[in-house]
Design a protein that fits this description.
Blueprint (H helix, E strand, L loop, with lengths): L2 H4 L14 H10 L11 H14 L4 E5 L2 H10 L6 E6 L3 H4 L4 H5 L4 E5 L8 H10 L7 E8 L10 H13 L3 E6 L2 H8 L14 E4 L10 E5 L8 H7 L8 H11 L3 H21 L5 E2 L7 E5 L2 H9 L13 E4 L6 H17 L15
Parallel strand pairs: 2-3, 2-4, 4-5, 5-6
Antiparallel strand pairs: 1-7, 6-7, 8-9, 9-10
Helix pairs in contact: 2-11, 3-11, 7-8, 9-12, 12-14
Length: 364
């Protein structure tokens, strides 16, 4: 047995983790008999109601296959093809959606705004809005924030409200990419409503797959006017699942007894454990505050190579560089401790020469 097969859980992505027991059990239960197709089934209705209960408001809920579709279709609903969306320069909608927001909106332009620690700066929003107002420029129509951010930080209630003030000033819609929304809620110990509709968010893309479901994200419209004919957008883009209950049922399993928040709390706790261990090593530099389930650290290149040779998988080209070490709902203390032990050993004993040749990140 080689080293790679001996390592059961990695730190590359929370997408690596399997389906959590609560989602798995709900899937099995939904599979026991026939159900009406295309979302007119009891599972979809119950999942949507549980989301409404969670946010304590009458919102419109749609289930799609993945985060790319959720973000792209939600942003498309905020404006017209001649509009633009403002987001942080590291935002997933800009760096990792292969142009999907522009494609599904028939041309809305994504404009980048800088900001410290992966967060949008309200002053930066105003600068970009005021940069040009002529008819030759794509008119700003929406702001997109990522919660938790691409570098593992979390917007506070006050920070979201400050952004909301700018969106109100310039009549912009506010979209939240919540691929790791559960981790942000667990980090802030806040009620979901406090960092969404009560803080001005018009539409949230609520991530499930990184939190323990098998597939599928929820698009939650707090501004229900924006949801007009969104079902047609879903159908046209191939996001209307014929057996919708298999997208919705895992949400029932996750939400009914609070498993979604427990799993996010576990992932966050393991990231904090990892952060604290790495912060004590003089050869390691922590790049960003660890506020959710990701740790960004600068490691010596020869140690990165040696860790991968030992079988560990993690990314070095996501966010603002360094190594991204992502904890998942199923990460355990022994996983963190084993990684740290290997790292400490290799900091001393790893060969400093790295074999030449191209690196295929797709295999890492």
């Amino acid at each position: 047995m080689n080293a790679e097969t001996e390592i059961r859980r990695h730190f590359a992505s929370d997408n690596y983790a399997g389906i959590c027991p609560e989602a798995w059990d709900a899937l099995a239960e939904a599979n026991r008999d026939h159900a009406v197709s295309y979302g007119d089934d009891p599972w979809t209705a119950r999942a949507a109601d549980l989301i409404r209960d969670l946010f304590e408001t009458a919102c419109e809920v749609f289930f799609v296959f993945n985060g790319t579709a959720a973000n792209s279709l939600a942003l498309a609903s905020t404006g017209q093809s001649y509009h633009s969306v403002l987001c942080h320069e590291l935002a997933h909608v800009e760096t990792d959606e292969c142009g999907a927001p522009e494609f599904f909106s028939n041309g809305m332009k994504v404009l980048q705004v800088p900001g410290v620690n992966g967060k949008l700066d309200p002053a930066g929003i105003e600068r970009l809005v005021r940069k040009r107002t002529d008819i030759h420029y794509p008119k700003p129509r929406a702001v997109s924030i990522t919660q938790a951010t691409e570098v593992g930080t979390v917007y506070s209630v006050e920070e979201i409200k400050a952004i909301w003030a700018k969106t109100k000033q310039f009549r912009l819609a506010l979209h939240m990419d919540g691929a790791r929304f559960a981790n942000a809620v667990a980090s802030l110990n806040a009620k979901p409503k406090e960092i969404t509709w009560q803080a001005g968010v018009d539409v949230l893309c609520f991530g499930g797959t990184k939190n323990g479901t098998n597939v599928g994200d929820a698009v939650v419209f707090f501004n229900r006017e924006l949801a007009a004919e969104f079902d047609y957008r879903c159908k046209q883009s191939g996001q209307l699942c014929s057996k919708m209950r298999f997208l919705a049922a895992p949400w029932v399993g996750m939400l009914k007894d609070g498993a979604w928040l427990r799993h996010a709390g576990q992932a966050n706790a393991m990231a904090r454990r990892l952060h604290d261990a790495l912060a004590g090593l003089p050869e390691v530099k922590i790049l960003f505050p660890t506020q959710a389930n990701a740790v960004f650290a600068d490691l010596p290149p020869h140690v990165i190579h040696a860790l991968r040779q030992k079988g560990w998988k993690f990314y070095t080209f996501i966010g603002a560089g360094g190594c991204r070490l992502m904890c998942a709902w199923d990460t355990r203390e022994e996983d963190v401790d084993r990684f740290v032990s290997d790292l400490k050993h290799l900091l001393v004993h790893a060969p400093r020469e790295i074999p030449s040749g191209p690196v295929d990140h797709r295999k890492l």
